[in-house]
């Protein structure tokens, strides 16, 4: 293998300069519209297994992609070495010949708003001692709150990312962000079965408390030991934020993608402006929540992001579009372009979802209103829900019984089935307390009349 | 600097063991949405991953920057990280012995997809789209195609030095059927560790057409009645059951971590007599096949259950040593940025001796489930859940009307003993991707399998 490419200087301005030079190359090849996206990332992680550090690893890498529009036809190609960008431009131009002539134009520039608090030099330093120190904290937190449990998995991850986008239409932006994550999974024998519980947290800054993360998993585990047998029925179910996110977010996000919806593929295709949930639910893509991981100043096409209400007071307010989907459906981009990585074309998605509701109540008051039901900590199988119909069938391994407004103790696994759009219309309560996760802020959600079987 | 020099440098810096993987993937992806070209993507990425052991602790580093400075930095980083981990005093990792392999294996396709024009790939998708859309109830069709030419070079300080290459091709369609207010979604996929000839061996157009017809026929179907019933699962769902319920539970890393219900049960009867399940990365053309794993161990057939008795785990070199078993070629990494994990390849239930029509005999009120819409397993608790693509009521031994949205859940150890018939014909299931923090291509398969007292999810 020939030695290629030297490492970029990890400098946003320089990365942007490279992207702009690729766009200039496109111009010199007679390509009227071109866009270049470049990214570089560095990471460090510590993996935990069997109550100890199992492995440490580091990675770095990056690359870029180009989009070109030739005669109204869009083409795409990617590369890992910026010296191959010219060949990628030719590849993209060739790909465009096979595309439909849809008179698409790349989006034009506007200035993104500043979004601070997303960079921490201490994270970017990729200090192995800091990462191992936090891993030690995770181990200690687990030991202190659940001394009989084994920390079976989890760890610490540090990441620093840079990206730059330049285009012939005036887009010229760069960004950088750091992120740190900590996670702990604890498992403990409990009779003939094992009980497990997990907790995780993420931040842009080196301010996570690893001990607190594992301690929370330990407290959850302790509260799940010696479960009683449950009984099925049609009852109220209160989902903790992690379970609520698992159950609801995939469906809602896929249902509000403009292209999918306008093609009639989703359960909310004909619901714009109509009621899709109980009046207490608000679902907003808000990239500007201070400190939240997932917030970005511009989308994957370089357009300034903005808060987009998706569901407000239970009414479907907006579908989401990137510039391509918007063009195809005669809509305006909601600046919702995302990219998996440099090898992927931009597509439509959410940046940072905030779920809330007018009339949100403190958790203890929400709980107090449940006469007979279950509190669910996690669900399995949510990804197998039917995205077209919203029908789902999941199991909930970590569950407590709720009787007369109080948590009455853990019970064995239950199965929950139903139809998610119907369930959202039966939303009975939203907690004031919410959990900040990577890309989402989610409260507890209470649903009435849920089918539970055992 | 190259792979060998990087390994040598790692040893000089203090690594007791060093392994280097250099990988190149050249890919092409094409997508058609409702008959319109949605995207044509092509590109190549190369990169390397270096893993070292220092005083029994792992360190790993990776990059897609192949400049000499990047190689050196990665080596230094991997060794430094391993030393930092070693200072934490974890029980030292040992590696099970493995044969020192040297050589090159190229699984050459008969028809390299790189030689196939984009228009021909688009034509395949257009034919899938047209065939499915011939049914008036089908409203939306997304057809997509992908191929990948993968080449790897693995070297380690044990003296292994193997190069291999293969090609995978896959074509799939996802569509929506609508009649009145009722909607149903369905996916269908054809793929193999082969070249463009994949689609001459199994026609994705025909397969998509059959799936569309079944989906339309199921519009208006009732939700299955929930509760414990006798179910028959087809070869594809049987394969998913083997993968989800048995394959994951036999992964040596989960056994070692105490996170599998198979722990401590080696040599014991776990399944009904006649039930044999293996994981086999040597099945010619199967989507999960590979010649060498990412520990440099040859791909092989790994028996898990033999006549109902647990006889083997899936093990990489690290966890094989921890459990006192042999490494059997089960180490796989998603890409060069990822560390190898214990993974499955093609997980298969052997055919039994019951003629297929007799598998249904005497079932008074059961469910016949075909195809998979995904599944999940909790190996520690020993529970599983998976959803069927199609399902039908069985009444008095006959497959009758369709029912919709059937999920099957259960306790792995109980369900394995509740298998009461295995059909006499084995078929390979659909290609798929298994997620365990990393995604790898897999396949599975089996015969018709009849299970008593299986918990069917549906209406209460």
Summarize the structure.
The complex is a heterodimer of chains A (454) and B (460). Chain A is built from ten helices and 20 strands.
How would you sum up this structure, described in words?
The complex is a heterodimer of chains A (454) and B (460). Chain A has helices at residues 12-28, 85-97, 121-124, 128-145, 210-224, 241-255, 258-262, 323-328, 363-368, 420-425; strands spanning 33-49, 52-70, 73-79, 150-167, 172-190, 193-203, 233-239, 282-285, 308-312, 315-316, 337-338, 347-348, 353-356, 372-376, 391-396, 399-403, 406-411, 414-419, 427-437, 440-453. Chain A contains 10 helices and 20 strands. Chains A and B meet through strand 1, strand 2, strand 3, helix 2 and helix 4 of A and strand 2, strand 3, helix 2, helix 3 and strand 7 of B.
Give me the secondary-structure topology.
The complex is a heterodimer of chains A (454) and B (460).
Chain A (H helix, E strand, L loop, with lengths): L11 H17 L4 E17 L2 E19 L2 E7 L5 H13 L23 H4 L3 H18 L4 E18 L4 E19 L2 E11 L6 H15 L8 E7 L1 H15 L2 H5 L19 E4 L22 E5 L2 E2 L6 H6 L8 E2 L8 E2 L4 E4 L6 H6 L3 E5 L14 E6 L2 E5 L2 E6 L2 E6 H6 L1 E11 L2 E14 L1
Parallel strand pairs in A: 7-14, 13-20
Antiparallel strand pairs in A: 1-2, 1-4, 2-3, 4-5, 5-6, 7-20, 8-9, 8-13, 9-10, 11-12, 14-16, 15-18, 16-17, 18-20, 19-20
Helix pairs in contact in A: 4-5
Chain B lengths: L2 H10 L4 E17 L2 E19 L2 E7 L4 H19 L15 E5 L11 H16 L4 E19 L4 E19 L2 E11 L5 H4 L2 H15 L3 E2 L3 E7 L1 H13 L4 H5 L20 E4 L20 E6 L2 E2 L6 H7 L7 E2 L8 E2 L3 E4 L6 H4 L5 E14 L4 E13 L2 E7 L2 E5 H6 L1 E4 L4 E2 L3 E4 L3 E8 L2 E9 L3
Parallel strand pairs in B: 4-6, 8-18, 9-16, 15-23
Antiparallel strand pairs in B: 1-2, 1-5, 2-3, 5-6, 6-7, 9-24, 10-11, 10-15, 11-12, 13-14, 16-17, 17-18, 17-19, 19-24, 20-24, 21-23, 22-23
Characteristic terms for this protein:
heterodimer; A: 454 residues; alpha+beta; 12-stranded mixed sheet; 6-stranded antiparallel sheet; 10 helices; 20 strands; B: 460 residues; 7-stranded mixed sheet; 22% helix; globular
């Amino acid at each position: 293998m020939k030695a290629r490419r030297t490492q970029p200087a990890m400098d946003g301005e320089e990365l942007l300069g490279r992207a702009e030079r690729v766009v200039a190359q496109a111009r010199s090849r007679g390509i009227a519209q071109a866009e270049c996206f470049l990214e570089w990332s560095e990471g460090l992680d510590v993996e935990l297994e069997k109550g100890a550090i199992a492995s440490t690893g580091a990675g770095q890498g990056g690359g870029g992609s180009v989009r070109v529009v030739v005669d109204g036809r869009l083409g795409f190609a990617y590369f890992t070495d910026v010296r191959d960008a010219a060949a990628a431009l030719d590849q993209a131009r060739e790909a465009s010949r096979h595309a439909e002539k849809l008179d698409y134009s790349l989006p034009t520039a506007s200035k993104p708003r500043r979004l601070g608090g997303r960079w921490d030099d201490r994270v970017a330093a990729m200090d192995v001692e800091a990462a191992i120190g936090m891993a030690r904290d995770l181990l200690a937190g687990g030991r202190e709150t659940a001394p009989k449990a084994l920390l079976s998995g989890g760890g610490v991850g540090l990441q620093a990312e840079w990206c730059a986008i330049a285009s012939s239409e005036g887009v010229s932006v760069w960004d950088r962000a750091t992120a740190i994550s900590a996670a702990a999974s604890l498992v403990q024998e409990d009779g003939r079965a094992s009980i497990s519980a997990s907790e995780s947290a993420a931040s842009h800054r080196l301010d996570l408390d690893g001990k607190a993360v594992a301690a929370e998993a330990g407290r959850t585990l302790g509260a799940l030991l010696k479960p009683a047998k449950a009984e099925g029925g049609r009852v109220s179910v209160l989902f903790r934020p992690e379970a609520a996110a698992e159950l609801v977010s995939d469906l809602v996000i896929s249902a509000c993608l403009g292209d999918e919806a306008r093609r009639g593929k989703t359960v909310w295709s004909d619901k714009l402006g109509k009621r899709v949930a109980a009046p207490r639910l608000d679902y907003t893509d808000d990239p500007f929540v201070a400190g939240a991981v997932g917030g970005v100043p511009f989308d994957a096409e370089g357009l300034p992001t903005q808060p987009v209400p998706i569901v407000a007071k239970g009414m479907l307010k907006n579908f989401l579009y990137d510039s391509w989907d918007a063009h195809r459906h005669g809509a305006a981009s909601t600046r919702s372009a995302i990219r998996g990585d440099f090898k992927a074309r931009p597509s439509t998605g959410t940046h940072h979802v905030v779920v809330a509701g007018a009339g949100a109540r403190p958790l203890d008051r929400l709980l107090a209103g449940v006469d007979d039901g279950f509190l669910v900590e996690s669900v399995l199988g949510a990804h197998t829900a039917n995205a077209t119909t919203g029908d789902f069938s999941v199991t909930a391994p970590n569950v407590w019984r709720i009787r007369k407004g109080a948590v009455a103790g853990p019970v064995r696994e239950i199965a929950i089935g139903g139809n998610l759009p119907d369930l959202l219309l039966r939303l009975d309560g939203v907690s004031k307390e919410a959990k900040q996760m990577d890309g989402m802020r989610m409260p507890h959600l209470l649903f009435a009349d849920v089918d539970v079987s055992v | 600097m190259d792979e060998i020099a990087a390994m040598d440098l790692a040893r000089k810096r203090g690594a007791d063991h060093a392994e280097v993987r250099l990988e190149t993937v050249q890919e092409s992806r094409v997508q058609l949405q409702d008959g319109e070209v949605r995207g044509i993507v092509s590109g190549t990425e190369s990169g390397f991953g270096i893993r070292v052991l220092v005083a029994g602790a792992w360190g790993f580093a990776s990059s897609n920057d192949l400049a000499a400075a990047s190689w050196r930095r990665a080596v230094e980083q991997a060794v430094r990280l391993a030393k930092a981990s070693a200072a934490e005093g974890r029980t030292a990792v040992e590696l099970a012995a493995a044969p020192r392999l040297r050589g090159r294996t190229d699984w050459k396709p008969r028809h390299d997809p790189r030689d196939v024009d984009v228009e021909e790939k688009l034509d395949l998708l257009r034919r899938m789209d047209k065939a499915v859309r011939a049914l008036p109830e089908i409203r939306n069709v997304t057809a997509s195609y992908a191929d990948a030419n993968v080449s790897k070079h693995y070297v380690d300080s044990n003296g292994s030095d193997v190069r291999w290459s293969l090609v995978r091709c896959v074509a799939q369609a996802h569509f929506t059927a609508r009649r009145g207010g009722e909607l149903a979604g369905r996916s269908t996929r054809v793929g193999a560790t082969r070249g463009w000839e994949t689609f001459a061996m199994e026609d994705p157009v025909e397969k998509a057409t059959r799936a569309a017809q079944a989906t339309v026929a199921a519009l208006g179907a009732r939700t299955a009645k929930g509760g414990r019933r006798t179910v028959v699962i087809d070869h594809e769902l049987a394969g998913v059951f083997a993968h989800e319920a048995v394959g994951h539970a036999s992964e040596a890393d989960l056994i070692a971590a105490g996170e599998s219900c198979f722990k401590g049960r080696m040599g014991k009867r776990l399944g009904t007599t006649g039930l044999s399940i293996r994981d086999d990365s040597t099945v010619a053309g199967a989507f999960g096949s590979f010649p060498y794993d990412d520990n440099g161990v040859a791909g092989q057939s790994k028996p898990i259950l033999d006549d109902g008795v647990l006889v083997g785990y899936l093990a990489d070199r690290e966890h094989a040593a921890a459990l006192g078993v042999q490494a059997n070629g089960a180490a796989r990494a998603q890409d060069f940025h990822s560390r190898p994990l214990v993974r499955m390849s093609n997980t298969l239930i052997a055919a039994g001796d019951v003629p297929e029509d007799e598998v249904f005999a005497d079932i008074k009120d059961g469910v016949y489930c075909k195809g998979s819409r995904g599944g999940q397993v909790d190996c520690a608790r020993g529970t599983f859940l998976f959803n069927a693509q199609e399902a039908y009521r069985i009444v008095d031994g006959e497959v009758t009307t369709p029912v919709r949205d059937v999920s099957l859940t259960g306790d792995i150890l109980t369900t394995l003993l509740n298998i009461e018939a295995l059909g006499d014909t084995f078929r390979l299931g659909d290609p798929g991707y298994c997620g365990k923090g990393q995604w790898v291509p897999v396949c599975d398969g089996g015969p018709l399998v009849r299970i008593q007292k299986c918990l069917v999810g549906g209406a209460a």
